[in-house]
Design goal:
Layout (H helix, E strand, L loop, with lengths): L1 E3 L2 H5 L5 H9 L2 E5 L4 E3 L7 E7 L2 E5 L2 E5 L4 E2 L1 H6 L6 E4 L3 E7 H10 L1 H21 L4 H17 L2
Amino acid sequence: MENESAGAAQLLEGADPDDIKALFAMGHEVFYTPGDLIFDVGDEAEGLYLILDGEAQADTAGRFRRLTRGAIFGEIALLAQEPRLAAVWAIKPLHAVNVSGNDFRSFLLERPQIALSMLRSLAHRLLAFEQHAGGDWIASGVSHMDEYAMRRSDR
């Protein structure tokens, strides 16, 4: 299991601290107790989260990551405008900021330097994940989404 405690620092590397404060001022505080599901695989991507205190765990196709203070999560599905590919739940009392998708996208349009910084960071994460997964993660992710789409169409 990986630990992702420097998520905000990595994702927003090089961003002006005032810009980071402005982003999270757009959000609202949320609180979860251990065991609370924050979002599940297939859920609509409605926002991203920044952990202020506590811990969560993410499960992406059996790959577990512990998310601690400073970690940002939920941004990938939000940017892709696709359903969530991970489940995230609180494993300790969790205090976070939730920023809506619309606010986040507006923020990026107003501050293209942050969008470029995030793009660079996400590209590095993608490359690291691909190397870790032996290059098969794309195929498994596509088949996972196909399965999700089939389940949804059966309703």
